[in-house]
Write a structure and sequence with these properties.
76% helix, 246 residues, globular, mainly alpha, 10 helices
């Protein structure tokens, strides 16, 4: 059995794939439902409540999903990713793996499988949000949704790379997950600096919302920086894990 097969089986048998699909899937359903029925609910509460609600449009069906995905969805990815990438948290398992394969051979399938699971779960939820928005509100341009979804998926791979890097700093799974979320939040706060914003991975998060509202595609800088950061983080992570004492 190869380490790739082992990682796929581990993801399946621990049902962590189900956690990701459930989180993103639920939000994919709730996004369009919220936009379609929240105004009616607010209206039933009274005129003042209705006036306090900003106008909701068709793109908000996807925007609601993205907003939830970047919050609780990323948190789910952080814990699932930490459980996979922080393999030194279990000393006995770490010694067993390290004496039979190189760190690169151990880390690579875990990183790729975790990234793929996160992306598949996100796209599953996005599909539900797109179909739900089309059925309940109106159909959006699928090309813009696909492009925006691909950009968000790239951000998810970056997030997994951050989780891997943090796992080379500390060993415990909860600590890796929470610190990773903290790092992603800090990177997001850097977007408040206007000159930096177009270059940061967080620019990819709002791409889908901007594109479906008619915005221009201006994400090449963020794409290039994100790809460079992914490669750099993975390289640094492997190097640190190779030199770390278990």
């Amino acid at each position: 059995m190869t380490l790739w097969t082992l990682e796929l089986l581990r993801l399946w048998r621990t049902q962590r794939w189900l956690i990701l699909l459930s989180v993103f899937g639920v939000f994919g359903v709730l996004g369009p439902l919220t936009v379609r029925f929240l105004p009616d609910l607010m209206e039933s509460l009274g005129e003042d409540a209705e006036g306090s609600l900003p106008p909701l449009t068709t793109p908000d069906g996807i925007a609601q999903y993205i907003g939830n995905a970047i919050q609780l969805g990323i948190l789910a990815v952080a814990f699932v990713g930490a459980a996979a990438l922080a393999f030194d948290s279990n000393v006995e398992m770490s010694i067993f793996l390290r004496t039979r394969a190189s760190v690169r051979e151990i880390f690579t399938p875990r990183f790729v499988v975790t990234s793929a699971a996160a992306v598949v779960a996100f796209l599953f939820g996005l599909t539900l949000a797109y179909v739900g928005t089309g059925l309940l509100l109106d159909w959006l341009d699928i090309g813009e949704v696909v492009i925006g979804g691909a950009l968000f998926s790239l951000y998810l791979v970056f997030a997994v790379a951050v989780i891997g890097f943090v796992s080379s700093l500390i060993k415990r799974v909860p600590g890796v997950a929470l610190l990773s979320v903290g790092v992603l939040i800090v990177v997001g706060l850097l977007s408040l600096v206007s000159p930096l914003a177009p270059w940061l991975p967080n620019e990819l998060i709002g791409a889908i919302d901007s594109l479906i509202r008619g915005g221009d595609f201006d994400y090449w800088r963020a794409i290039v920086v994100t790809l460079v950061l992914i490669v750099a983080l993975v390289g640094i992570t492997v190097r640190r894990l190779e030199t770390r004492e278990v």
